[in-house]
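Ticket #4471: structure output looks truncated?

Reporter: J.K.
Steps to reproduce: submitted the chain below (118 residues) through the standard prediction queue, then opened the result file.
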Amino acid sequence: MAIALVSAHAECFSDDPDMHDNHLWHMDLLARAERIPELTERALTDNHARRRLNRSLRERGMEAALRDRAEDGDRGALYVLVRLMCETGRVQEAQKVVQDIGPEDQYARQIAARDCWT
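Returned output as attached by the reporter:
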């Protein structure tokens, strides 16, 4: 019910800050309700949905889904996956993911170098 109420007053990148905040809240509610398919569909065209989806996948330990998204071109998913691997001490695995999925992605390489060794 909360999702329906908030979505009626939500707009991405609205000039009205309340509408924009409601949009962010809507994405958060979808994730909390585990409505991953709906969030995934919205992530195709909505940056906020994409970021919230990737965060939700991380929170749920769904590394395979993050990897699939990264392989499909979602750089945000790649960054989330590499950070997760670094934080859990899987340095070589993180470096391999970067090499396999984004060998030319300087930011992914920087994450693997900086976050895995600090």
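Triage note (M.O.): checked the attachment and the full token line is present. The CA atoms of residues 13 and 20 lie 6 Å apart.
Status: closed, working as intended.
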